[in-house]
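[job 4471] stage=fold_predict status=RUNNING
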Amino acid sequence: MSDLRFEDGGSPIRTAPSPRRKFRLDKANGKLMGVSAGIADYFGWDVTFVRIAWVIGTLVGVGSLILIYLAIGLLAD
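[job 4471] inference complete, writing structure tokens
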């Protein structure tokens, strides 16, 4: 409901949603390929939490996230 605003009559006027940002690798702030920094920038999260999630996900998923990480790093921006 944050996209509603009221003017004189009290009736809600819907504002246009903000344009969706495009995902980009953040090589300037990245450590390896900039994937975690790009994800953190896209969602507005702390990059440390994204990196920890990658490590935990890789350990739990028996390394399958390494392939996903490499795919994102090679295919994105």
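[job 4471] summary: The radius of gyration is 18 Å.
[job 4471] exit 0
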